């Protein structure tokens, strides 16, 4: 039996098993097996997924990938938001490779990748799905484009494809400490009460994965799926914005209904409806910060900010300014929200905040 057949067998079994306390353990083990098969499916091919036209250099401050079914308007968006033209047409699979464009917004240089439409079964290699998903993994934000005139089913189907290859959307990594050991067996501890995850399940799953020596500390309430994710590893946690396009073609009531969904925005790219708001949302979801630098005795230049990621330190800011600056670093003075007093004298590991002003003092 091939891997794909084994996968669909297990999926079928999961589908027909009723979910209740008595079957929970069995279902969890099946999911563990499924995750393992899917990982196998990806492994030998991951080095060759790049393929022609998908090997696009990362550039700018952040990367956004446009994921969606064919003809939802991805290339139309690229054409409107960037200087790059990507053929847009009414037939499906107009775009066949990865086409990068550059969007300048709030002083940041954001790389937007137009990609071929993906279809159901993409994660198993249908169409160019595997290449598209491999590119999605390298991005800082997934913009999932959906056709507002079509059924809501599309969203769930796309999510399923991305989930099957270990992409987790709008979710943070479960707080589980997991370390392989050379000996000593498996030690398992949970710091909080677990309504779903049992110690027996955790131990059986590790056994299924042939892990006999490890330390596990579960630090928060988690599901068995979360636990499987941590054991399988190689998960990618990404923010995702759901963009419902073509609202020019649906009723106001429908628009209102969709607009209330979580992490969602309604637009018409072609008719320029709500597109400025979309740019704002992309900016917001990328979690980028701007900090300003200043020289001794001078005012900061508020027209020239540095773009850094949320959580970035003074060291990250140094690297953004110049490759060797961190080596010559003595200390920095920081004004702004991250500073306890103004200015605060800090080291390389100081975490910066939006709109902070930094003065670097060299050796
Ligand atoms: N009504 C309406 N049509 C739109 C809108 N945006 C794009 N379209 C149309 O949708 C069709 C598909 O647009 P594309 O940009 O080629 O879609 P795509 O997602 O890049 O398609 P593939 O590359 O084939 O996957 C074109 O006929 C566009 O004119 C919109 O806001 N409203
Ligand atoms: K198209
Ligand atoms: Mg296209």
From TrEMBL:
GO molecular function (one):
GTPase activity
Where do the OBG-type G domain residues begin and end? 62-287
Plastid among keywords: no
Per the database record, which ranges form the TGS domain? 287-362
Residue ranges the record marks as coiled coil: none
Q: Name a biological process GO annotation.
A: positive regulation of cellular response to amino acid starvation
The answer on whether this UniProt entry bears the keyword Nucleotide-binding reads: yes
Q: What is this protein called?
A: Ribosome-interacting GTPase 2
Organism, as annotated:
Mycoemilia scoparia
Lineage here is:
Eukaryota, Fungi, Fungi incertae sedis, Zoopagomycota, Kickxellomycotina
> What's the gene?
RBG2
